[in-house]
Design a protein that fits this description.
Number of strands: 2
Radius of gyration: 18 Å
Largest sheet: 2 strands, antiparallel
Structural class: mainly alpha
Length: about 70
């Protein structure tokens, strides 16, 4: 039996934020924006498209980690 049988308001908001984040990154990693970065340009020898995807992935991981971390009870 769980000590929190019903999610409280903050957990519900966290879920909504995670859903928004998933939809946002789904849009950012979809065709119209990927086509903008799909050209022969390079930054530091790395193709622009690869750099775009890598930076978005790192941002997604960081934001997800921030949203799901446990708040410390003080």
């Amino acid at each position: 039996m769980s000590s929190h049988p019903h999610p409280d308001h903050s957990e519900s908001r966290r879920g909504h934020r995670l859903l928004f984040l998933a939809v946002l990154f789904g849009v950012l990693l979809n065709f119209p924006l990927l086509a903008v970065f799909d050209h022969d340009g390079r930054v530091g020898g790395v193709p622009v498209l690869y750099l775009y995807v890598l930076l978005l992935w790192a941002l997604l991981v960081g934001l997800t980690a921030y949203l799901v971390r446990e708040k410390r009870a003080e």
